[in-house]
Structures are given as C-alpha cells and as structure tokens.
Amino acid sequence: MGGVIGIEGRKNAARLAHVGLLTLQHRGQESCGIAVEEKGKDAFNYFAANGLVLGKFTEDVLEKLKGENAVGHARYPTSGSKSGILDAQPFLFKSAHGNIAIALSGNIINTAELRVKLAKEGAIFQHSSETELIVHLIAREKLPLEHALKIALSKIEGGYAAVMLFKDKLIGFRDRHGLRPLVLGKIGKSFILASESPAVEVLGGKYIRDVKPGELIVIEKGKLKSSFFAKPAKQQNCIFETVYISRPDTHIRGMSVAKARMAMGAKLAEQVKAQGITADIVMPVPDSGFFAALGFAKASGIPFEMGFVRNHYMGRSFLRSTQPMREIVAKLKLFPINDIIKGKDIMLVDDSIVRGTQSKKIINTLREYGARKIHMAVTSPEIISPCFYGVNTPSKKELIASTHTHDEIVKEIGVDSVTFITIKNAAEACGGNEGATGFCSACFTGKYPTKISKSTWEAR
Ligand code: AMP
Ligand code: SF4
C-alpha cells in the first residue's frame, strides 16, 4: 500500500502535497514526509516523521517547506523496518547526477538479490526499505539521469509506483504490469502525480489519465514528456485496490470504486440467492463493506441496516503492525447497535477475510447481541496466497482460506454460511472501461504475473 504525491511548478508546492497526503492517508499511517525543491538552493527542504500527516505537518513545519516542486509519501511498511524513522520517505540523495528525492509505494521483489550484488560492489545502504536500490542503480550509470533511471528500472521487478524530484523536474513511473496505481492530473498549468485521483481533485485539479504500465513521465516547467522504460507487460491492475485499498471516490479503469463495490454486492446477492439463503437485514462491516452491502440490499430487496457504529479514531486494524495490537484495535473499533441486531437473520457484508481473526470477533459480538442467524457475503474471493507487490497479506500458513476448507472456515469464524465472490464476478464488477480482463488475482489463484524467486518466498 503506501501513497505518493508529486507536484510541479506551484508556489507552495508543499502545502498542496500536504493536502494530497491527507487524502491518501488511508494507504499508510506509519510515517509521512515531504521533500521540496526551492529555486537556487542546493538541498531539498524536507520534513518526515512517524505518525499521521495531520498531526505531524504543523503550520511551523509547512512554513519552512518553501519551493515549487514537491514529492510526498504516506508509508505503510510492507518491507524494511516497521517503524524506523530512517525508512520514512521521501529519501534524499546527493549523487554524481545531482540531488534526488524519491518516494515509492509498493514492493521491489528482487530486492534481496540486488542488495547482495550491490553490497559486493561496495554499496552502503542507509535504509532497510528497497526504494534506495533504485538510486544505487542510477548512480552506477554514467549516462544522463533519465537514461540511467531507465536502465535502473529495467533491472528491478515488482509492483510499484514512484515519484522523484531531480533538477527542476518531477518524474513519475509505474511498474510494467501496472500493479500499483499512479494517476496524472492537472491543476492550472501544472501537473500532479498521485496514487489515487481524489488527491488531485481535492486540490481543485482534474484527473487526466492513469500513468501507463512501464511508463516514465518527466515534467519540467509545465511540459510533459512520456516514454517507456520497459515493454509494458499485459496490464495487471491489482483487483484488491478496488476491493479494499482505494477510497470509494477514486476512479480505477474509468469506474468509481464505490460503484464497483456496489456491483460486487449485487453479484454476491445473485450468488447467495442461488444457494437459497435469505436474511432479514443486510449489514456492512464498516467502513469497507459499506458500498457492497448497499449494492447487495438494492439487488436483493433485503433492507439495509447499519448495525455497527465505527470508532473512526482507531484506524484500520491491519495498519498496526503486530498481532496483539491488531486484536486490541479490532475490539475497540466496532460498536454493535442492540436494537438493530437482536433476533435478526443477518447478511453481513465485508470486503475480505484474510486471517479470519476480525470476522470471528465480529460474529461473536453479533451473537452476544442476540443475532439469530449470521450469513457472510465477502467481496473478495478466498485469499490463498501472499501478495509480493505491496499489499500486506500474510504467509500462506496464516491465511485462513489457505489452511481451511470452506466448511472449516464456516465453523472457525462461527457463521451460518459464508459466500465469497467468484473471481469472474469480482473482475466483471471492477472492470470499468477496460472490461473484466487485465487484473492481477495472484492472491486468489497463486498465479503471479512475475517470477517469484525462492528467496522472496522464503522471506515470507
Ligand atoms: P482478518 O480476516 O482478521 O485478517 O481481517 C480482515 C479485514 O482486514 C478485512 O475485512 C479488511 O477490512 C482488512 N484487510 C484485508 N486485507 C488487508 C490488507 N492487505 N491490508 C490491510 N487490511 C486488510
Ligand atoms: Fe493485488 Fe492480490 Fe495481486 Fe497483490 S497479489 S497485487 S493484493 S491482486
């Protein structure tokens, strides 16, 4: 996960990046940072901290971040240290090419091999996150930066989207499969790059298009140059972006995530009906099950009810890195409403079941509050394999759908039934302008769009 933003040619670029990062906060809450290029200055103005954007970027901090070009990052650690300030991005480097600031969301999967190789050649690493690798690879090339960057990117594999500042230029690039999102927008005469379209729109800007898989964009003085660092592979958007990660108001493949989630709910209603399962009310697990439950209710005619109040100050349960912490946060997160739940047959709609820990707790709570029957409808197919492209799904042995049969899942989480959306239905609902093909679904099928080396598997 993680979110990036880049602004070119705006007075107070840091303030715009700040607002953009507030919009992308759901993608990562571990640390945040902004680097700004100020004309005539030989070093970036910079601030990064562990914690939330709103709390850390005070007026005093923003006042010091002068300059016209900015890159920003909200971090969710999927690799590297969990909370070390040294891994807060953007990273800054002084190289033979010049000063570089870089922020990346996603994962480079051949990190282990590249680190060993580069270390043998004398590289010294300051960060445990792999973003630094790109700059090491650039620094080894004696060509102009753009060429050097293309060579560097041809040596890395994974799912990533990144923004960079270099000598009055804003640079953006996206992995050749298009796994992690990056959009291009415009505000006045200036371009913006961001992980999700609302980060552009919140600034009064306009979403233009998605950065293409394998595309390298260089923006200088309001002029955009596009080229490719790799032959784009078959497009493989991460379907989990629509299912869970992205904001409902984000557009993916020309379709709003909210609408795609509603369509997934409607498809699930058909699947549930075909099994002869009924309920008195449809209820979302807030917030990520909300639009799917709405779609389910509309399609099935079963009334929509909000049986939980969510405490918005707890954050997403997964965004706390350790298991004991996750459990405490999950308990504090949802408050049941007795009058809505008692005596009802409930159709509970959630985005995904990963470890099953959260579902189990929620089902227990609903039973405690007098629910008669509880059926679950889930807008992600069974997750059976880890993600290596920047989404923190755990190892196979922790994934409930990998270690349990369907009946065992029902028993383990304590529901009367559970229906997972089929991969075909999920892809059709999320397809947008480009249709149902061209999605990565490796965590549901175990078939990865890239080679996964033995050491990458073993690191899980
Ligand atoms: P659990 O089944 O207890 O592991 O938790 C599943 C819940 O965690 C889902 O309903 C989502 O709200 C959330 N979730 C699912 N996948 C992820 C992920 N990769 N990163 C963060 N949160 C996630
Ligand atoms: Fe997304 Fe799953 Fe593919 Fe990872 S493996 S990029 S979570 S669809």
Q: What portion of residues is helical?
A: 25-40%
Mean pLDDT over the full residue set:
93
Distance between the termini: 17 Å
Radius of gyration: 22 Å
Explain how this protein is built:
With 460 residues, the protein is of the alpha+beta class. It has a 7-stranded antiparallel β-sheet. Strand 2 and strand 3 form a beta hairpin. 52% of the residues are buried. It contains 18 helices and 23 strands. 32% of the residues lie in helices and 25% in strands. The two termini are 17 Å apart. The structure holds adenosine monophosphate and iron/sulfur cluster (SF4). The site of adenosine monophosphate has 18 residues, from helix 13.
Summarize the model shown.
The chain is of the alpha+beta class and 460 residues long. 32% of the residues lie in helices and 25% in strands. Helix 9 runs antiparallel to helix 16.
Task: Reconstruct the topology from this structure.
Blueprint: E1 3-7, H1 13-23, E2 31-37, E3 45-50, H2 53-56, H3 59-64, E4 69-75, E5 91-94, E6 99-108, H4 111-120, H5 131-139, H6 145-154, E7 158-166, E8 169-174, E9 183-187, E10 190-194, H7 198-201, E11 206-210, E12 215-220, E13 223-228, E14 237-238, H8 239-245, E15 251-252, E16 255-256, H9 257-274, E17 281-284, H10 290-300, E18 308-310, H11 323-333, E19 334-336, H12 338-341, E20 345-350, H13 357-368, E21 373-378, H14 400-403, H15 406-413, E22 417-420, H16 423-430, E23 439-440, H17 442-445, H18 454-458
Parallel strand pairs: 14-23, 17-20, 20-21, 21-22
Antiparallel strand pairs: 1-4, 1-10, 2-3, 2-4, 5-6, 6-7, 7-8, 8-12, 9-10, 9-11, 12-13, 15-16, 18-19
